[in-house]
Amino acid sequence: MSEFILNGEQVTARDDHPHLLAALRDELGITSAKDGCSPTGQCGCCTVLIGGKARVSCQTSMEKIDGGEVTTLEGFDPAEVQRMADAFAACGALQCGFCTPGIVVRTKALIDKNGADLTREQASRHLGAHLCRCTGYIKVLDAVEALAQDNIPVVVQPRGVGSRGIKYEGRELSIGIRDFIDDMNPEGCLHGALHLTDHARADITSIDASAARAVDGVRGVFTAADIPGVKRVGIIHKDWPIMIPVGGRTSYLGDVLAVVVADTRQIARAAAELIAVQYEVHEPMVDPVRVITSTEPAVWELDGNILSTSTYTRGDADVALASSSFTVSETFQTQRIEHAFLEPESTLAVPTRVGAGEPGLYVYSGGQGIWDDRNDIAAMLDIDTSRVTTELVSNGGAFGGKEDMSNQAHTALAAWHLGAPVKITLSREESLLMHPKRHPIRMQYDAGCDADGKLTAIKVRMIGDSGPYASVGMKVLERAAGHATGPYAVGNVDVEAIAARTNNSVCGAFRGFGANQAQFAMEGVLDRLAEQVGISGWEIRNRNVVMPGDTWGPGQVMDDGCKGARQCLDAVKPAYDAAVAAGKSVGMGLGLKNSGLGNGFKEIAKAVVRFQADGRVEIRHCWTEMGQGIHTVVMQVAIEELGIEAEQIDVIVDSTRELGAGQTTGSRGTLMGAGSVQAACAAALAGGCEVGVDYEGEYRVDWTSSLGEIAAAKAAGNPIENPIIHSTFGYAAQVVVLAEDGTVENVTAAHDVGRAVNPMLCEGQIEGAVHMGLGYAMSEGFPCDETGRPTNTTLKSLDIIRPKDMPTVDVILVEAAQPNSPYGIKGVGEIGLVPTAGAVAAALRQHSGKWHNELPMINESNRERASAWT
What is the CA radius of gyration of the chain? Predict the structure, then answer.
């Protein structure tokens, strides 16, 4: 046993814990220290004070702590904790909140040492031990400064739509007292661990779990043979195996072969390693360019290696290109990217009794679509959906990476068979292998303009690597195709985008959803044409930006909502002109991104308002809170419409009401969440706001057309006149200015959000998106080798920008209302990084004279394997 002082009291803990963090969380009940990457110590989420100094507890051995003194947030002075919670909430210094308690601990250590002398530059260097994927660190440093100077802003609860105020649960998240799933430990909870395949493409000839079952403390081992119902899940296509059975074939290195459940996580993980698997190994099919022409299927039981093809034409691009005054022909390559949300995937499933005493399950999920989770779990268990309830536990970041089922099915299966609560939390290494990434896409662009720089034609051919399973890959490539011309009016367009199935990492949804890949190429084309014409980057965009009445992309005639594109362009012009006048290397990008799924998808969102006898008001909606602030949005709508106070409101997302609207994706949560809650409030007011009544509201978008429908109608000689591909678009312009050494000095980001429901949260979304966009542009990547194995296995190797390297970001909120949307709202979450890479590329061109056509532009080791794409 190890003895040490914990929060002022002498404690003992077992010596067999792999590190201090495990002892704190698994034995001593301390949950403010979060596990984001143990035992690598690269995220900072588990930071505690050891002898008064900030240390990452997942790299502190039990031997080192014996006889020492450990202080966690639970042991801080309550008044000091409240000050810190107030500062971080009031400054908007958190979004998902998973990383924030660790940052708060280090902040205390820095202020205890430096007091009011602590500078922003010092803080940014010391916070380099911490990753925050949400905020971009800017508002975090604001909070640290406020605490150091004892100048904490007044905490203001938000009022109605358009008001600034702290995010829902902001203070609780800051100090780690709002539980994430891995913090939850019901009585009798067992722990699960997964056994993943060793080979990306191999036949499974046997699975021997006898050694694992013999381990003391193991309660069960489950394989595909133990699944009573359907064996595959999926958002669009049910093609993703829950587990690969004996006689089946693996298709990527994230495939699961078995689940081990034991009394402790440590026992479960050790036992999972003892499972012996016999393979017949096959050569992985990992080159997307060659896979699409191969007749041999890359993926088990699925025919063909082309997941989807998206095409459309307007006019005659070839003829227009031939007669253009200036032309550009260029191939652009973007890379696979890891989301790097700080909370690894976790699920808790608890057996219940439903109806007339039938067995059921209550599943706590951090996924982006809990109704999809419920439906797939019920189908797997071959039971009615009424016997499964899923509850959203607001997750620690997602960015699209938690749309697909992760360990929800495995956890539910184990709890169902054992009749006991089971929790499975992925290690960081498992998370990196399993969940979908951003699509790498090769894009061949041919573009032309006239002598004045007006675009004449765009011809595009794209190939994207979607990995083995569909996820939403066909929709990402469809979105890239639809957004291929950016926010510009082009008369002649010819686009084709292919999603290929390979044995590399699965690719799916990720902030930007195909638009940012296409925009990197389109902005590069514009800057090359601008040089030929002899005009500036700003001016060529000014001459081509889409305006009301213009025909965009696949043929949509734009409404007044697109006025925001020019307003963003105008908003950044002073910053652009000032950088030019100062002789700085400067680049700019302009982008658009749809809000909502569009493309013919029928979208219906529902919400419920319910008044309780104790005066509290429940707001139930159907969207996942993952840091972006949807809980705050629906709260502010209720305040706006009902005239109630923020302190009265409880926001709930679970499947006890049939409100499901699919995945929280496509920048549609704010748009459709606000619309549905607004409608529910109207129903409540009309019904007298009676206690105990569910007042339901609905918001729907069911008037869009898919690219396939448009193409089919055109081929049949009955073209759709003025098709609407998307109901709503957001717009953004960004100016990137470099320092003399070529590093990014400043970003000016003007974003049209339609209506800023909460300006502070909007600013935070944009700052965080710019941080992510800069990493995408310059350093980040997640390449796979010739065997389909990712070459990056830790958070550090992803090369995410740390606080000291984050430039200043000047956010300009533009509000060009979208006609017919609630309050004029447009999405902001995804558009934030759409223009960034193009702007960085243009600035680097001025600095070095070199055109950049491949991402990341600086860290070449994180680029795609060239032989896979040539």
Answer: 26
> Structure tokens of 823?
């309050």
Nearest to 135 by CA among 774, 767, 800: 767
Residue 364 bridge partners (DSSP): 348, 391
H runs (alpha helix) in 92-179: 100-114, 120-126, 138-148, 170-174
How many angstroms from the chain centroid is the CA of residue 351?
Answer: 30
Q: Which residue has the tokens 């717009």?
A: 731
Helix (H, G, I), strand (E, B) or coil at 127: helix
Q: Distance of alpha carbon 772 from its chain centroid, rounded?
A: 10
Parts of the chain with a pLDDT under 50: none
The dihedral built from the CA positions of residue 623, 629, 632 and 634, taken in this order, carries a sign that is negative
DSSP one-letter code for 182 = G
**CA nearest 820: which of 731, 714, 724?**
724
Whole-number Cα distances in Å, 79 to 84, 103, 111, 141, 842: 9, 18, 15, 21, 49
Contacts of 414 (CB under 8 A, 6+ apart): 190, 192, 220, 222, 259, 261, 349, 422, 424
Element (DSSP H or E) covering residue 531: helix 515-533
Which tokens sit at 340? 């790097």
Residue 398: CB atoms within 10 Å: 28
240 and 404 Cβ atoms separated by less than 8 Å: yes
- Please report the pLDDT score of residue 665 as a whole number: 87
Instruction: Supply the pLDDT for residue 497.
Output: 98
Q: Which residues contact 716 (CB under 8 A, 6 or more apart)?
A: none
Q: Please give the DSSP secondary-structure letter assigned to residue 52.
A: T
Beta pairing partners, 650 = 618
Distance, in Å, from the CA atom of 249 to the CA atom of 299, rounded to the nearest integer, reads 8
Provide the H-helix boundaries in 534-562: 537-544
Instruction: Tell me the C-alpha distance between 329 and 211, whole Å.
Output: 60
Q: Cα(560)–Cα(546) distance, rounded to whole angstroms?
A: 11
Q: Whole-angstrom Cα distance, residue 853 to residue 523? A: 11
Query: Following CA atoms 159, 163, 168, 174 in sequence, which dihedral angle do they give, to the nearest 10 degrees?
Result: -130
3-class SS of residue 239: coil
User: Cβ atoms within 10 A of the Cβ of 697, count?
Assistant: 22
Residue 854, CA distances (Å) to 417, 725, 858, 865 in order: 49, 29, 10, 12
Sign of torsion over alpha carbons 685, 686, 689, 691 = negative
Encoded tokens for 248: 């089946």
- The type of residue at 111 is I
- Rounded to whole angstroms, the Cα distance separating 700 from 671 reads 10
Residue 703: its pLDDT value, please?
86
- Residue in the block written with tokens 């909460």: 758
The pTM (predicted TM-score) of the whole model is 0.96
CA dihedral 382, 386, 387, 390 (to 10 degrees): 100
DSSP structural state of residue 161: T
Predicted pLDDT of residue 720: 86
Instruction: Note whether 834 and 771 are within 8 A (CB).
Output: no
Q: Which helix (H) or strand (E) holds 696?
A: strand 695-701
Pairing type for strands 218-222 and 695-701 reads: unpaired
Burial of residue 330, with CB atoms counted within 10 A of its CB: 0-12 exposed, 13-18 middle, 19 or more buried = middle
The token duo for 86 is: 């107030």
**pLDDT the model gives residue 601:** 85
The CA distances from residue 424 to 67, 266, 346, 374, 377, in Å, are 32, 12, 6, 17, 15
Maximum Cα interatomic distance, the chain, rounded to a whole number of Å: 82
Distance CA 707, CA 710 (A): 5
Report whether 569 contacts 547 (CB < 8 A): no
For residue 690, list its beta bridge partners.
none
What pLDDT is recorded for position 706? 86
DSSP 294-344: -SS-SSTT---SEEEEEEEEES-HHHHHHT-SEEEEEEEE---B----SS-
